[in-house]
Amino acid sequence: MAQLDTREKLAILADAAKYDASCASSGTAKRNSRDGKGLGSTEGMGICHAYAPDGRCISLLKILLTNSCIFDCHYCINRKSSNVRRARFTAQEVVNLTISFYKRNYIEGLFLSSGIIRSPDYTMEQLVEVARSLREDHHFRGYIHLKTIPDADPALIHQAGLHADRVSINVELPTAGGLKRLAPEKDGARIEGAMAEVKGAIADQRDAGKKYRNAPRFAPAGQSTQMIVGADAATDGDIVLRASKLYDRFSLRRVYYSAFSPIPDASAVLPLQRPPLMREHRLYQSDWLMRFYDYQPHEVVAAADAETGMLPLDIDPKLAWALKFRDRFPVDVNRAPREALLRVPGLGVKAVDAILASRRWRRLRLDDVARLTVSIAKLRPFLIAEDWRPVALAERADLKPLVAPKKKQQLELFAA
Ligand code: SF4
């Protein structure tokens, strides 16, 4: 490996980390202050944003320890057979970078992942050493998210959880068949075994924390995972069902969905084109329906096309479900229980809670609901209010064009 200075390593290893979607920042304009005017930059290497458990947005240094890897996962730019430029930080270099960025107020935490070098245990030892040194040698109180290596010794993964706020283990592909084909060296059972260990350790820590004030913390921000979307033949239905099982079995904080993006020098077994980014967005919306809107996984799957198993791209899954199950509407805003109101397309959790609070004192009219949502026109077929009752609107064959968003203007699933 050629001798690289820290800046060159940072450029390579921050770029290599961008494929991990579990804490991403995107969508902003490119700006910098290299001409001496102004302050700051949106193009800086390796800084991304994540949300803390209390809702604060925090900046993280997001890098890989190394982009060298002994595995050859087809979808990964860092795989053994890829001819990307390689770089590697020592644990001490990552510690120094984190501390110096932190002192300059660039970041509030670290997101650290790695390709596998020498062995899973050796790699995990290096990752743990970064977190240990930050916590014990430098008394670093910032946020640390460590990606763990599922094949590593469980004792090392446990050590990671003692120092990190969040640990994550990627399941990578939605189906066992996809994992076998695209990441043949990875073992689905071992990945799930590691997630089960982390879940157990988090639960033990919670129990211990109730009994002893000074019980050691273990991954207080929980564990998460990531699935690549569109690299194999898994349908949206498959992905939704897998995600729901992962939430149930491992008490995950989040499942992240990362639309597969073709990589330079890609393996021939991969699709040539990336899936539409909207597919990733629809999966995140489905995830929210299960986590915050009380939808069962089979109900979200029912919103998908029965033949292809894919969610529609032109409308959100909540509206797709409502259009398919019209017999569940209209819903009376003055009487319906919370769970029925949450099914109304365009009514978000906050709007539903505001409706429930207001209707204790008076009967709500359509205008009252309009103040809580972005577009009342789209809600009308699905609602009854004091002064409004849709006349057979829900049965109309042309209902979808009436309520579907016009070009680029999607009905807000989480409005208000
Ligand atoms: S183990 Fe991780 S870094 Fe290595 S090839 Fe597979 S996905 Fe890439």
From TrEMBL:
GO terms for molecular function: catalytic activity; iron-sulfur cluster binding; metal ion binding. Residues 59-286 form the Elp3/MiaA/NifB-like radical SAM core domain. Its cofactor is [4Fe-4S] cluster. InterPro entries: Aldolase_TIM, DNA_rSAM_put, Elp3/MiaA/NifB-like_rSAM, Endo/Exo/Phosphatase_dom_1, rSAM, rSAM_sf, RuvA_2-like. Keywords: Iron, Iron-sulfur, Metal-binding, S-adenosyl-L-methionine. It comes from the Bacteria. The keyword Protein biosynthesis does not apply. This is Putative DNA modification/repair radical SAM protein. It comes from Sphingomonas abaci.
